[in-house]
Specification:
54% helix; 4 strands
């Protein structure tokens, strides 16, 4: 069972949100035991808990669902993935535009070369006569 150090008030509550639980002892903090199944809740919503006489903390009945936090985390990760894919798509779009310009350059060069080859053939045919 993990031990956290907290600063309760005279009612054994944690109204001061600026003093969050820590894992190391410090002046003015009191050791509390948190069950393994409650660690995730306690570390997120510690100010809603109450300190019991036995050194454990008691959760109120109205803690938010961690399922919502989990889904919010998934949405954040998916949003980040979407932004990364947008960046990649923009980079690929730029590469495609560059390739199109390069292809046009090749077509132009081929046309010029074809014209030069035709002139050479005409000139060569004229010289043979």
């Amino acid at each position: 069972m993990p031990t956290y150090y907290v600063k309760p008030d005279s009612k054994n509550e944690f109204p001061d949100k600026s003093v969050s639980p820590v894992l190391e002892q410090s002046d003015g903090l009191r050791a509390v035991n948190v069950t393994l199944t409650s660690v995730q809740y306690f570390t997120r919503y510690w100010w809603m808990y109450r300190l019991m006489d036995n050194g454990r903390v008691e959760a109120p009945g109205n803690l938010p669902s961690l399922d919502i936090d989990y889904l919010t985390g998934l949405i954040d990760k998916q949003s980040e993935t979407i932004e990364n894919l947008k960046d990649i798509a923009a980079q690929l779009g730029g590469a495609q535009a560059t390739a199109a310009v390069d292809l046009d350059s090749v077509k132009t060069a081929a046309s010029e070369l074809g014209g030069q080859f035709a002139e050479f053939m005409v000139a060569n045919a004229t010289n043979k006569e």
